[in-house]
């Protein structure tokens, strides 16, 4: 697997946008891995939380926006409370989702859900799901 | 004691058992509960994008309703409502500039929100205002060492700023259970996320989480798992169906709200406990222990 790293990617507007939306300074992360160690969703992830931060530092936009990880995150904040540098990884995950959602690239297509599917879960589940996964 | 109460949407529908058991328990404890007038949905989750103010408005309108009720704090039960309302409140208090912008959206509101309302959870009221030892004195039906594993989930304890207990090792619900005469069972997955909203489009993930969480509780000796969030209750209870399909060795576990357990101990009637809203029927286990 080839990963290209370049100054152009690192200085891209994408990195700045992620930092702005999340309110986090990505270079503070020193890759200790405590976020990934605590994350309950890692078994479903292709890029682990600490790797997400590293990819974001390097401006690897396509890998991040095509990842499964950002959509299996449940915003449980375990990563946030474990980080020794106080980085809010959950906020970075949200920023990555927002980059796509703000372009109307929804993860869940509401019109495609059947009435049965919608009735089988409580409203609280539907609302929180749509808040995180749709625009 | 009079308390202003914000129920949130789920407590009036899928989680009537949570509300019913709470209201009858508080009645036994001599607390008068006043439901907030004209409350609306809080939004369920707190928006983490720094530039997003619009998703906080629903919560702020509720905080205005609290001010209109002429009370300086409101009690919530649903962990998601608690987390969302409290985080919005803290954010607004810390950022007066965004409060300016928000006032422009709130021009038709008669009362102006200034960050001057407190959001509290029922557990804080029970621990700090009523006190567990006083609740213990009102127990009419001791729980005969019912082995209860208290599951906290995420939003009641994280982030640190909103939590009212240790975020890695919370004890508050366990202490309440002990005061009621139950045996508190500690287990390592008590703050491990249930998967929350993944239940809508990825129920497989929930099956995996439910298997881990409930098996851990069972291995420590739990007879029942006490929950404090309607979404956790759905995931840990209703998703046992998918869990049993995926894991042949999975044994079902009754799931109760901590307030239902408290209501039983305080002598509340079964009609307030709404056992019909459960997937895994808790009645056989409770009947066997002589509690109903």
Give the topology.
The complex is a heterodimer of chains A (135) and B (292).
Chain A lengths: L6 H4 L2 H10 L11 H5 L10 H9 L3 H5 L3 H4 L5 H5 L6 H13 L13 H5 L3 H11 L2
Helix pairs in contact in A: 2-8
Chain B lengths: L1 E5 L9 H13 L3 E4 L21 H12 L4 E4 L2 H16 L1 H10 L12 E4 H9 L1 H6 L9 E4 L21 H8 L3 E3 L17 H17 L4 E4 L2 H8 L2 H7 L8 E3 H8 L17 H6 L4
Parallel strand pairs in B: 1-2, 1-3, 3-4, 5-6, 5-7, 7-8
Helix pairs in contact in B: 1-11, 2-3, 8-10
Please give a structural write-up:
The complex is a heterodimer of chains A (135) and B (292). The radius of gyration of chain A is 16 Å and the shape is globular. In chain A, helix 2 (13-22) packs across helix 8. Helix content of chain A is 53%, strand content 0%. Chain A contains ten helices and no strands. Chain A folds into two domains: 7-103, Alpha-helical ferredoxin (Fumarate Reductase Iron-sulfur Protein, Chain B, domain 2, Orthogonal Bundle), CATH 1.10.1060; 108-135, no CATH class. With 292 residues, chain B is of the alpha/beta class. Chain B has two domains: 2-122, Glutathione S-transferase Yfyf (Class Pi), Chain A, domain 2 (Up-down Bundle), CATH 1.20.1050; 140-288, Rossmann fold. Chain B has helices spanning 16-28, 57-68, 79-94, 96-105, 122-130, 132-137, 172-179, 203-219, 230-237, 240-246, 258-265, 283-288; strands at residues 2-6, 32-35, 73-76, 118-121, 147-150, 183-185, 224-227, 255-257. A four-stranded parallel sheet of chain B has the order 2-1-3-4, sandwiched between helices. In chain B, helix 1 runs parallel beside helix 11, helix 2 crosses helix 3 and helix 8 (203-219) packs across helix 10. The longest helix of chain B is centred in the C-terminal third of the chain and has 17 residues, at 203-219. Chain B starts with a strand and ends with a helix. The interface between A and B is large, with 38 and 40 residues.
């Amino acid at each position: 697997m080839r990963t290209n790293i370049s100054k152009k990617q690192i200085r891209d507007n994408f990195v700045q946008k992620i930092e702005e939306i999340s309110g986090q300074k990505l270079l503070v992360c020193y890759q200790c891995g405590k976020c990934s160690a605590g994350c309950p969703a890692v078994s479903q992830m292709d890029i682990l939380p600490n790797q997400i931060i590293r990819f974001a530092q390097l401006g690897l936009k396509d890998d991040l926006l095509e990842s499964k990880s950002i959509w299996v995150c449940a915003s449980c904040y375990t990563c946030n409370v474990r980080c020794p540098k106080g980085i809010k990884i959950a906020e970075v995950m949200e920023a990555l989702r927002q980059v796509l959602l703000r372009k109307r690239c929804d993860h869940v297509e509401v019109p495609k859900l059947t009435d049965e599917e919608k009735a089988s879960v409580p409203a609280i589940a539907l609302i929180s799901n749509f808040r995180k996964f749709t625009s | 004691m009079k308390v202003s109460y914000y129920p949130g949407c789920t407590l009036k529908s899928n989680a009537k058992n949570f509300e019913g058991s709470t209201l009858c328990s508080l009645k036994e404890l001599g607390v008068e509960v006043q439901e907030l007038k004209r409350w609306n949905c809080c939004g369920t989750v707190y928006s983490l994008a720094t530039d997003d103010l619009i998703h906080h408005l629903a919560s702020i309108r509720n905080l205005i309703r609290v001010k209109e009720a002429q009370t300086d704090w409101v009690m919530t039960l649903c962990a998601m409502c608690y987390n969302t309302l409290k985080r919005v409140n803290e954010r607004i208090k810390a950022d007066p500039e965004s409060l300016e912008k928000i006032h422009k959206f709130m021009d038709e509101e008669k009362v102006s929100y200034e960050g001057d309302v407190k959001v509290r959870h029922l557990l804080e009221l029970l621990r700090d205002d009523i006190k567990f030892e006083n609740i213990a004195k009102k127990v009419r039906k001791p729980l005969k060492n019912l082995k209860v594993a208290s599951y906290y989930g995420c939003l009641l304890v994280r982030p640190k700023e909103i939590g009212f207990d240790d975020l890695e090792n919370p004890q508050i619900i366990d202490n309440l259970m002990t005061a009621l005469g139950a045996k508190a069972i500690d287990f390592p997955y008590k703050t491990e996320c249930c998967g929350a909203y993944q239940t809508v489009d990825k129920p497989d993930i929930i099956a995996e989480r439910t298997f881990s969480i409930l098996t851990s509780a069972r291995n420590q000796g739990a007879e029942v798992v006490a929950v404090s969030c309607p979404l956790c209750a759905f995931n840990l209870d209703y998703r046992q169906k998918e869990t049993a399909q995926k894991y042949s060795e999975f044994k079902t576990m009754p799931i109760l709200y901590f307030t239902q357990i408290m209501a039983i101990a305080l002598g509340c009637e079964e009609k307030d406990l709404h056992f019909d809203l459960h997937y895994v029927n808790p009645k056989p286990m409770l009947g066997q222990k002589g509690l109903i």
